[in-house]
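Batch manifest, entry 17 of 40.
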Amino acid sequence: RDWSSDVCSSDLPSLAARGQQRIEWAEQDMPVLRLVRERFAREQPFAGIRLGACLHITTETANLLIALKAGGAEVTACASNPLSTQDETAAALVVEHGISVYAIKGEDDATYYRHLRAVLDTKPNITMDDGCDLVSEIHKNRQDLFATIIGGTEETTTGVIRLKAMEAKDVLQFPIVAVNEAATKHLFDNRYGTGQSTLDGVVRATNILLAGKVVVVCGFGWCGRGIAMRARGLGANVIVTEIDPTRALEAVMEGFRVLPIAEAAREGDLFLTVTGDIHVIDTAHFAAMKSGAMVANSGHFNVEINLTGLEAMSTSHRKVRDFVDEYVLADGRKIFVLGEGRLINLAAGDGHPASVMDMSFANQALSAEYMVKQAKNLNAHVYDVPQDIDREVARLKLHALGVSIDVLTPEQERYLGSWEEGT
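Output type: structure tokens
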């Protein structure tokens, strides 16, 4: 199959068997997506649809792809990050589920884009992105595909930023549903998923004790909130850096110190970037850091840390542990970069727990179905997830957790729909 071209074929059976076990382990913690998959299998909403996905090839993603195929889609997938692929999961998707996958952990840039192009060569009708690379590549180099694409979905904050920039410049040529904007995505996946998985990746890479460390969280969006909350829970002294006054004020009210990065650089033991912007940690900040400082990124792209600048400042560079690179500066200070500046939670760890990805990927699947049904009525615009989908995902998750909530009485509904009653 497609994936085996990058791996010795004799490795496939054992890899696939291990991957299938891990996929099944994740599936038991994804009850909402299971319900979606079962309905898809009955109704076949994607019959005749070619779906191209550029996502992190993990066990949770595998369950999404399996659900889409169950709904009739012809699914082809590639990785959305060179270090996030779980090879055994990719093998299982190919061998056990007949899903074409172009991804291998540690692939170089040339291989990454070759895999991206391989997905586009299938002429997908629906795109599914984690970072907007498929959509970007189509608009830059594969405009011939505009005729067959009806729309797409986007999973990440970074991808939505790119898409909205395309829309603002009147470049975007087909509709996209911004799955990241769903409340059942960013309030849970970004906050609780990123918060836990980022620190898990750091600890796996370094085996450091976080208690007592000064942890600098760059960015206080939903991902930054989650990381700051979890780091404090593990005993770290947390400093937040921000450019947005409202978010900075919220961080202050939450009890965190808020400093400009130039000042925080002198104090931090561990720096974590989650902004979606470029060179958040730059050469001037490296110059101010204490020896032994560690820097890591949990934003989608590896541009948040200026690694080129750090390399230029360094007299030597070596790998000292898996996912830990040591840079020695001219004065002898050492800076440690984790996971090559890529998503540390997926480079060194397993990414978000399945229970939180259950909601995110249910949103992905239902948004793709919505796109198939509604594309003719949609313009080249970035759309939020329809509220009825968002609320249904929350309802199903509560049901799976055995949690019941109240329902308005007829009297309460009438009151909320009236204006006559006052004090």
